[in-house]
Each structure stands twice: as C-alpha cells, then as structure tokens.
C-alpha cells in the first residue's frame, strides 16, 4: 500500500493514491479518510498520479467519504488523473460528482481558503 | 503488445497482482499511447478477477484460472475460465442492477464488467465456468448508469 497523506490545514488534505485503489487497498484508504473526517477535514484532494487501477470497490470507498463530508459542504476532488482512472470516470460518469484538476497544485490553489 | 495471450494462474493469493503486473507492463510499453480499449480490457479483467478472489467457491477443487485474449479487427476477444463452483451470473447481474443506488459503496463489480465490455457471456460446462466478452476499440457511449 502506498497511500500518502499531506494535510494542508484549514480542513484540507491531499491523499496520493499510489499504484492502485482497489478491493485490496480500499479498507486502508477508507480508514485513513475516516480519521481525517473525525479530525475535522472536509475537503479531500485525491492525487491519482501514476494510478494504474481504480476499481469498483475503490470507487465505492470514495463515494463513502463523499457521503460523509458533502452534507456539511465538504468536497472530494480528483487531481492528476491517470488514463486508467479516467476510463473509470468516463464509464461511471463520476465527473458529474467529483471535479477534476490537471494537477495537485491547481487543486490546492483552487480549494485553499482565501 | 502481442496479438494474443494465454495465461494460467493457480494461486488466488497472487492472482490479482500477477494480472495487474501483466497489464501494467503492456500499458507502460506503449509509452502513453496505449489504446483506450486496452485500458478497458484491463479494468474488465481486474473486476472479474477481483470477483473470483473475493467470492468464488473453490472448496474441494484445484484452483485454476485461465485468461485468454486475442486481438481482432475491432478490438479484443477475451475468455476467463475458472474451476470454481460458479454462480447465477445473469440473476446476480439483474439483482445488482436493480439495487444500484445513488452513491453505491458496493455491488458495482459485475456492472463495471458489463459497462466496459460487449457481448458478455457466462457459461458453465464440464466443471469449468467461462466469462467471455469483447472489448471494442470503439467503445461508443457505454456507461454504468449510476443514478446520481
């Protein structure tokens, strides 16, 4: 597992997904995100640089986090989306739910409070 | 990438990683030019393998999973055979489709295979179950229709 979390303050965190978010890594991802939610984080930037697989269980774990933060105005966004992940985004039309940014920097600048 | 492959796996503990490595190597060797059909092929195969690893009943049977695919004019032809007890594929697919909610946490695997592939069939014969499908270069507007 290669999840890397980078808390940015003001309720914002970037999580580098690494090689795969699938049925094997989804529980650890979900547990990590839950911890951040409990600590007051409301905005998650998911960094998909180099991610080779996002499967249905991985996507379901992202939905789970979104369901927790969105009622309070929180967000989950995708950054640096790899081609395999883009295939899943297009197949499931999840661009309707999760905004995408070309880079993590772009996402952080857009979402950091003024 | 070669036009055909036949791979046999006997270890469920390493099956997912082995398949992932197989596709990752081929995608990497395309230097960013891998066709989208190859990425959809990878996804469909991964989802099925994940289904086998998590849910298939191999008790009392020797584990054998065979992945066969070949390139044809319009895409890939794929067959994944296994020696598990099998299940009611069409019934389960229909159930998953009916249960699909707004932001589903589970139950999308078979639907994802169906969205990524065409002509999906599941046959059971002689103690072997075979999922076969095509992944077309022109994927059209296929989607897993999640009711957001």
Q: How would you portray this structure in words?
A:
The complex is a heterodimer of chains A (114) and B (148). Helix content of chain A is 39%, strand content 24%. In chain A, strand 1 (4-9) and strand 2 form a beta hairpin. Chain A has 4 helices and 7 strands; from the N terminus they run E-E-E-H-E-E-H-E-H-E-H. Chain A has helices at 26-38, 56-69, 83-92, 104-111; strands at residues 4-9, 12-16, 20-21, 43-47, 53-54, 75-79, 100-101. The termini of chain A are far apart. With 114 residues, chain A is of the alpha/beta class. The model of chain A has no long low-confidence stretch (mean pLDDT 96). In chain A, helix 1 packs parallel to helix 2. By secondary structure, chain B is an alpha+beta fold. In chain B, 39% of the residues lie in helices and 26% in strands. Chain B is built from 4 helices and 5 strands, in the order βααββααββ. Chain B has helices at 12-29, 36-55, 89-99, 109-116, and strands spanning 4-9, 65-72, 75-82, 118-125, 128-136. In chain B, strands 1-2-3-5-4 form a 5-stranded antiparallel β-sheet, with helices on one face. The chains are: A alpha/beta (114), B alpha+beta (148). Chain A binds chain B through residues 20, 22-24, 52-53, 55-57, 59-61, 63-64, 66-67, 83-84, 87-88, 90-94, 96-97, and chain B through 16, 20, 23-24, 27, 32, 34, 36, 39-40, 42-43, 46-47, 50, 53-54, 103-106, 108-109, 111-112, 115-116, 142-146, 148.
